[in-house]
Amino acid sequence: MNDSTLLDPQARAYGNMRTVIVAIVLVFLLAPSLLVIPISFGGPGEITFPPRDFSWDLYRQLFTSADWVGAIMRSLRVAVLTMVIALLIGVPAAYGLVRYDFPGKKLVLLLVMSPILIPVIVISLGLYLYLSRLGAVGTVSGLVAAHVAYVTPFVMMTVMAGVKKLDPALEFASSIMGANRRTVFFKVVLPQLLPSIGAGALFAFLISFDEVVIAWFLTGASTTTLPVKMYSSIQWDISPVISAVSALLTFLSILFCCLSVWLQPSQRTE
Prior knowledge:
Its main location: membrane. This protein has a domain at 65-239: Orthogonal Bundle (MetI-like fold). It is 80% helix and 0% strand.
């Protein structure tokens, strides 16, 4: 009996054990999020699992409530503005940090990425103190500025990974043939970066749309976003409508994750 015959049963046992552990971890991670989906189809006035009746009443209540619809529209507006501004700042910054060397580059990179490292509650307090001096607390512009500061490092990380995979020879050849830096960036670099930019845009939108801690500090009565509305609802009035909102957010997150994964193979094949 050779060694491979002896090792095969052991390898299969390890493989089965690994599959079971992965399944347990996935169930532990996904169950709380997926549990709200069947609950959201329960009857009005109840949050139970499994629901006793199947109905669309909670979704009907959600989309006929001016408060909930207003919070959804404000979150969408803030998330779209945040995504656009973060891309305008993050894409050129990521390209410059990867392609060019300059004194203090590591320090600049550390400062730009610091919102990822610092606890979000600390960032929220600092933004509140800073924006209150500017009179921007309780305004959409103040919340968008805060979300841009928080989200841009995530966009930069995604785009920087894409820039590192580009072939510098293409940019060098374009420059030799007479193209200036702007032409090289828009005609050569940007088309190759579209998958990374798309993934960064999805992350920026989703992080801003779901963000609650910074919004809790900076929003007022007329600028309450959907996550702040949900948190307030849990604290003061546990409305069953929140299960319908949670189910929609879960669907949105899964959709964006699938789109992000779909973009990754396109990036690798280029």
